[in-house]
Records
---
Amino acid sequence: MPKILIVFHSRDGMTEALSRAVAEGAAAAGGEVRIRRAREMVTPDVMAMVPGWADNATRMNALYPAPVADDAHWADAILFGTPSRFGLVCAEVKAYLDSLGALWARGQLVNKVGSAFASSGSTHGGNEVTSLTLFVPMAHFGMVIVPPGFADPAMFQAGTPYGASAVSHNRPGALPSDAECAAARFQGRHVTAITAALKGAGLHPME
């Protein structure tokens, strides 16, 4: 059974919903799934400037543990989900990536499968480039990068070939559409299937 880790950050719930859809797809393909939410990197004063941020963080933190290095060591595949922050991965997920230096130094991320997905406030808010930028640390880690591509009809309806995505159109509390969730579920299935095939072929993460 492939071990699938989903590490995400979400402020309003959009990326959280995408993460849950990815998890559904991974579980449907036979994966053992862990979902982890990266914690805030800002002060309570900053969070208070955005209505609902603190309440949403409290709710999600009660549902999802914070990611730790042992989660990445456990996983055969890691999917990183992030809101687009000016076209880049958010600070919270970046901080988790930075925490994996000891695993990187020991080569313990080599041959793990990596994938990414993102959300944004506007149609051209950076989802594609955000997913692409997450490929860079994956390459440094020696991961096998697996984007969803246009490998399923769902990907012609929503998302990007680099990773599932959702757009809130700057509506507070907006959730992904059915089409966006379908693309995310496909990405979870696809990554899990590729991970299982690699494990079956004898390509295992280094210990």
---
Amino acid sequence: MDSVFKAVGFDLDGTFLRTHVDYSRLNDADRTILESLGIPFDEIDFGDAVKRQRHPIRNWLESNGRGDEFGSIDRMIDDLCTEIECEFVDEAEPFPGSVECIDIIRSKGLRVGILTRGSRGYAETALGTCGLTGRFDAIVGRDYRSYDDAKPSPVAMFDFARELGVEPSEILYLGDNVADYLSARDAGAAFVGVLSGACTAEDWRAQDPDMVVVDYAGSVVDLL
């Protein structure tokens, strides 16, 4: 890999850690909150984004004279997401090579961080469960700024780079799903796909036939 890198970044779930998250509930947290408030979820046009965004909710509320409710509803959805993420957080464990690679990366003079769609609180709890508190130069979650700026938005990668003190082009980022790849690609960061989570080798080839793919995130030390 190119020696221009100054930092290595990892997605959390399915990449750096093996975790147990009820993604069915998590992905429907917005539906759960909206329907509990009498808002007809199925009337809202969310489009075909890779990850469902929040601005269509704001648009619906504003169109129906309830725009002033968006802030509280947004927080309610985030709180439910974090609750779901943390439900089985004590089951989190590093994938093979994850812990060991941190010191090796640092020995090469590189910074190391976590960029996740999970909340920062969840990420810190999961890492703490694995004895990894304080081991990273930056941890950026979906609550760093507005939800719609989380991965797959490139804004998330720009924020991550800022926290690491580098440019996006100086980051080598590893992830297990398409949202990870899109955020890195669109911000100009280099990307390596892992096979420990959501995507298969075929899935990665469909995104980029030339993508470097590894079994586990810890294998990054063989690429540097």
---
Amino acid sequence: MNWTIVSPLRDRLAESPMWHPQEEALYWTDWYGPTIHRKHWRQDKVESWTIPNETVLGSFVFASGGRLLLAVDSGLVLFDPRTGQTTPFANPDGGREGMVYNDGKLDRFGRLWVGTYELTEQDPRGILYCVTPDGTATIGDSGFPSCNGPAFSPDGRTMYFSDSVGRRILAYDVSPQSRKLANRRVFAGFSPEQGLPDGLTVDAEGGLWCALYGGSCVMRFLPDGTLHSRYDLPCPITAAPGFGGPEMNILFVATGWSPGVEKASDEMRDGGALFALDTSFRGLPELVFAI
């Protein structure tokens, strides 16, 4: 694989690579930073903002007015890169002990789906929430130690969700008229040797891309669940894929590192980097949360 590395940064756990077409900029995060990065396409400089008074940054989405909606310890907060200021928006999980927010994405109808993560990864207390732009939150599904993904088919009618500890990707039917999910089913399962399904993204052909945490790879699945291809990376912790670039044909993969593992091995020195690969596929642009 002809992977390149986007920047010299090595995050403890890079996450959420997302392309902003109007800015021609790539955003990604360090989960443990908690930090958000931005790199404009034709510039070498990477801008970074560390969010004060928080310990993790689970995910983010683009929001109206040039802002970002961040999922952090204190809830969902609006962040303005121009000022560095944060403003509380909603906190559907209510600050439950031992829980933090994790992956989140907008569906094709403009609603945010964001899940929570139980810090020991043992107790199935994680909840997947649906949040509308007015701040109303409902429960989509629950009973997971760790909620990851999600991603949506090109027509928006299917949601894919990583039940990481359960080593499976679930699929649900989605309706623009309802915040309820239907027809839950197993889309793909994984062996211990393959790693844990983590971040997801969908290409314009409907292919589902899954980063395998601990599996050193990203896999692409066809809409019927058939494994189409595998893309190996030079570090075991592959956390999240996303498409970007001016033509939306570059696959970005966020990775992480574990103290005493990658840092002890020259072969794993690039753990925590954001990788890029030119592909024959094209991604789909992310919507803006219309707050």
